[in-house]
Amino acid sequence: MKELLQLEKDFQRGRWLLMAAFGFSFVVALTAVGLAFKYSNEFSKRIYLVNRGEAIQVTCGSVTDNRPAELRHHVGRFHELFFTVSPDPKSIDENIRRAMFLCDESAKRLYNNLSEQNFYRDMVQGNVTQRVQIDSVVADLRHYPYRAITYARLVQERATAIVHRSLVTETNLVDVNRSDNSPNGLLMRDFHILSSRVTQEYNK
């Protein structure tokens, strides 16, 4: 009888040991699979470029990782093209043409309004140059479409005087396919000027 009881205890102990070993093996297997997936995913982000026989490792990431910087660059580039004016009609036309790829018809309406006010004609005839200095682009990517407010300064230089203006603009942005004309894959919409005023003016 004692032998039977001892045999049953040994059997139960063996069964528990077997279950514990199986559970431990299962945990080890899951851990191994998880680590393998993690390292495989990290390795897949590594790209090796060969430059003059030397391998250079680069790491790729999500498209959205650098979106804030791309948005600021896109908006800043539009302002540079649209608001930089030289007394050369061909240069003005080329800058406006390139700026129109970055924004919707709201930029075209603003350009038409300035043209109707003879802004560009006066700049050319007066031999006036205008350059823009971007102070900051405040972007909100928490909601879609994105929103950006730009704080900048315009410097208009004439033969006899220099005028400084503060410029504040606002726009929404949407995602589009990347192209040579829009490398950041963004399009500005509803662009408008919130404020434009003279802050300083002095004679040369």
UniProtKB/TrEMBL annotation:
Keywords: Membrane, Plasmid, Transmembrane, Transmembrane helix. The chain crosses the membrane at residues 16-37. This is Conjugate transposon protein. The lineage of its organism: Bacteria, Pseudomonadati, Bacteroidota, Cytophagia, Cytophagales.
